[in-house]
Amino acid sequence: MKYEVPIWEKSNLTLEESAAYFGIGVNKLRELTDDNSCRFVLWCGRKRLIKRKLLDDYLAKTYSI
């Protein structure tokens, strides 16, 4: 039995989930998270996860991306 967690309850999102949730393209998210000083990316091996709350805070303070 597989339990599906709603996207708004997840603390970390995949690039595809983040793109759908925030309305930002996957390529733009890759570009933002390629920076070594990015605070809202979590690397799990080669997999890139987005820390939802930190990205939400970042977008609230940012004028343009």
Structure report:
The structure is a single chain. Helix content is 40%, strand content 17%. It has one domain (9-61): Alpha-Beta Complex (Molybdopterin biosynthesis moea protein, domain 2). The mean pLDDT is 92. The chain has helices at residues 15-22, 26-33, 52-61; strands at 12-13, 41-44, 47-51. A hairpin with a 2-residue loop joins strand 2 and strand 3 (47-51). The chain is built from 3 helices and 3 strands; from the N terminus they run βααββα. It is globular and about 40 Å long. It is of the alpha+beta class and 65 residues long. The protein has a 3-stranded antiparallel β-sheet.
Largest sheet: 3 strands, antiparallel
SSE order, as H and E? EHHEEH
Q: Report the portion of residues in β strands.
A: 15-25%
Using the coordinates shown, work out and report the CATH topology.
Molybdopterin biosynthesis moea protein, domain 2
Short description:
The protein has 65 residues and is of the alpha+beta class. The protein is 40% helix and 17% strand. The termini are far apart.
